[in-house]
Design brief:
Length: 384
C-alpha cells in the first residue's frame, strides 16, 4: 500500500513568498492538502526568479506545484475580511512574512483559536520572533554565513556558500515535519498550536557536528574542499584520465579490504600510521599520496569498477548536466501555463503521481473570493 493523498481534507492558508514556506506548502499540497497561496497584489517575487519555462519561472514551478493562487492587498478591508473567513475554516496558517508582519495584521494564533480551536499556525522567521535578531531580515545565504556554514564550506583558501538554498529547503522541511506532529497532537487533543521555526535554529542544529568539534574536540574542522573533516581516506582523487573519483572509508574493516583488493597493498592496514581512523587522519597527506599514486595508473571508470568490486563506497564528480542524464534520476512533470517542466521527483510522494499544475498569478482569485466572501456579504448578494 502506498501513500494516497494522506492529508486530503486539510485546508492550508499560506501567506508566503520566496522559498522556505513555499517549499513546505508544496509538500503539504503533494500530500493531498488544499493549499491556497496568498500573494501580494504584484505576486510572489519568486515568479521573477527566472523566465526559463516559456517566460515563466521554472524555480517558482518547483516550489508551487499543486497550489491555488490568490493575490490580496491585506491593507484593504475587503481583502482582509476574505482572508479572515479563510482562516476561520483553515486547519493550518503558514507564513514567512517580514519580521512582525503577522502581529501587525492581528493574526495571532491564540486570538485566532478563539474562533478556530484546532488552528495550527506555523511562522517561519530568520532569527526567531523574540531576542536580539527578531527584527533582522534574513535570506538563505546570509543565514549560512551567520551560522558558520560558510566557515566550514569551500577550500582552505576561501570560504563558500553551499551551492543550493540549503537554509530555505531545510527550514521548509522542518516546518513540514513540525506541522505533521501538530496534526497528530491535534488528533488527540482537538487543540491547535503555534509553531515558530527559525532559519537560524534549523541551520544551527545542522551545524552540530562542527559546533561539537569546536566545544569538545579542540576546534572546528578546517575547510577541506572535497575531503572529509574527520575521516581518511575520504574524498576526491584524480585518475589517469584527469577525472576524479570520490571514495569513502568508514571503518577499519573497510580500510583493510581497500588496501588488499584496490591498492594491492594489504600491509598498509597493519601499519601503525594507518591502523585506525585517528591515525589515518593524522597521516592523511601520506595516505592520500599513496592512494593518488595508485589511482593515477587507471581511468576513473576502471577505479570505480575496482572499488565497486571490493564493496567500497564511491562516486564520480558529476556536473549538473551529468545529473540531468543520470540513470538513477526520477523525474516528475509540472504544467505551468503552456510550459511543461520536467524536474527531479520528490523522494516520497502521494500515489498516483500525476502532472502537477502550477498556478498562474491570481488564477483562482475570483473563485476563492466568492467561496470565502464574508457571511454578511453573501446575505446581501442573495438579497440582490
Amino acid at each position: 500500500m502506498a501513500l494516497d493523498k494522506e492529508l486530503e481534507g486539510i485546508f492550508v492558508v499560506s501567506l508566503e513568498h520566496a522559498v522556505a514556506a513555499p517549499y513546505c506548502g508544496m509538500l503539504l499540497a503533494d500530500a493531498g492538502a488544499r493549499v491556497i497561496k496568498v500573494e501580494r497584489p504584484e505576486g510572489d517575487f519568486a515568479r521573477g526568479y527566472d523566465k526559463g519555462a516559456e517566460g515563466q519561472s521554472a524555480i517558482f514551478a518547483w516550489l508551487n506545484r499543486g497550489k491555488e493562487a490568490l493575490c490580496m492587498n491585506l491593507k484593504n478591508a475587503k481583502d482582509f475580511a476574505v482572508l479572515q473567513e479563510m482562516i476561520v475554516r483553515a486547519d493550518i496558517l503558514l507564513s514567512n512574512l517580514a519580521p512582525g508582519a503577522m502581529d501587525r495584521l492581528g493574526l495571532n494564533g491564540a486570538v485566532l483559536r478563539q474562533k478556530t480551536p484546532g488552528l495550527i499556525t506555523c511562522r517561519i522567521s530568520g532569527y526567531g520572533e523574540s531576542g536580539p535578531g527578531a527584527q533582522k531580515k534574513a535570506y538563505d545565504f546570509l543565514v549560512q554565513a551567520e551560522t558558520g556554514i560558510c566557515a566550514v564550506t569551500g577550500s582552505p583558501e576561501a570560504p563558500a556558500r553551499v551551492g543550493i538554498s540549503v537554509t530555505d529547503i531545510s527550514t521548509g522541511l522542518t516546518a513540514f515535519s513540525a506541522i505533521l506532529r501538530a496534526l497528530i497532537q491535534r488528533g488527540r487533543t482537538g487543540q491547535g498550536v503555534d509553531l515558530s521555526i527559525s532559519m537560524f535554529d534549523v541551520m544551527s542544529d545542522w551545524m552540530n557536528m562542527p559546533l561539537l568539534a569546536h566545544r569538545y574536540m579542540g576546534g572546528a574542522p578546517d575547510r577541506m574542499g572535497l575531503k572529509h573533516s574527520f575521516i581518511a581516506p575520504y574524498g576526491a582523487f584524480v585518475c589517469a584520465d584527469d577525472q576524479q573519483v570520490l571514495l569513502a572509508i568508514q571503518s577499519d574493516r573497510e580500510f583493510f579490504i581497500f588496501c588488499d583488493q584496490v591498492l594491492g597493498r594489504p600491509e598498509l592496514a597493519k601499519n601503525p600510521k594507518f591502523a585506525d581512523n585517528p591515525a589515518r587522519y593524522t597521516n592523511r597527506e601520506e595516505l592520500d599520496a599513496i592512494v593518488t599514486q595508485c589511482f593515477s595508473q587507471f581511468s576513473a571508470n576502471s577505479v570505480a569498477e575496482r572499488l565497486d568490486a571490493a564493496g567500497i563506497a564511491n562516486a564520480t564528480l558529476n556536473s549538473v548536466a551529468d545529473l540531468s542524464a543520470h540513470p538513477c534520476l526520477k523525474n516528475s512533470v509540472a504544467s505551468f501555463g503552456s510550459a511543461e517542466i520536467t524536474m527531479a521527483a520528490l523522494p516520497v510522494s502521494s500515489e498516483p503521481v500525476a502532472v502537477k499544475i502550477v498556478p498562474m498569478l491570481d488564477e483562482h482569485g475570483d473563485a476563492i473570493r466568492q467561496e470565502f466572501a464574508p457571511q454578511q456579504s453573501k446575505v446581501n448578494q442573495d438579497e440582490l
